[in-house]
Amino acid sequence: MNQILVSEKLYITPELKRKKRMYKIDFFISVFLVCILFSYYIYAEYDKNKNEAISKEILSNLNFENNIVDDTTIKFANNSIVVILNTEDPFEVIYSEPVEEDTGDNINWLETASGTRYYAVATVNIPKIDCTYPVILGSNPDNAEELEELLKISPCKFWGPNPNEVGNFCIVGHNYRSDKFFSHVPDLSIGDKIEIKDINGQTIIYKIYDKYVVQPDDVSCTSQRTNGLKEVTLITCTDDSKLRVIVKAREDI
Predict the structure, then answer these.
(1) Longest Cα separation, the chain
(2) How is residue 178 annotated by DSSP?
(3) How confident is the model over 143-172, as pLDDT tens digits?
(4) Contact 120, 135 (CB under 8 A)
(5) How many Å apart are CA 93 and CA 78, to the nearest integer?
């Protein structure tokens, strides 16, 4: 009997007690971290749903007759463009400054909660993936922070001429890996249709003729060499956010 008691006392040593306390501390820290991550996930989903609602509200209230600008085409210098889109970190956008833009008082400006001004230049509708959104543009396209904020609301005009004009109208949108924004653009195939409605109320149907993946610093998709044709380019990220999905469409004549 004494041998059993001695063995038990030897088994529960101060070192084992210390380890037991550490295990408890580690357990509570793990639970705390899980709660923090779960709270972050809930907030992120709430934020995405809120921005989706804003985009749909813009779409439902669009009246292009009150949003008419002149025929000035927004032109950009042919410099490097890097667009990094992912679902974990904020967007990072680096691009060159526009040469000219019409910022007259006849534009129907909207504002974000932080005061960023923007307006809708078109709507994009992709029937195959049930994707319909306004295409928006900020009041200061050379401001990267502004574009970062607007990309959270809706797809944005990124490059090229005005919608439905000769040239390559480039639209960039976030891939949330859900049913929001351009998440299903990577699922499109050659032959699928893209509908663009411009500020004059004209709708042109474009047919996808190419789809590929590029490195983040490959900007060849924004080329304006379209042989006098009207084209649309959709840009989003892959599901792992490491590459860019490029979908190119041409007016379906």
Answers:
(1) 99
(2) S
(3) 888 888 899 999 999 999 999 999 999 999
(4) yes
(5) 15
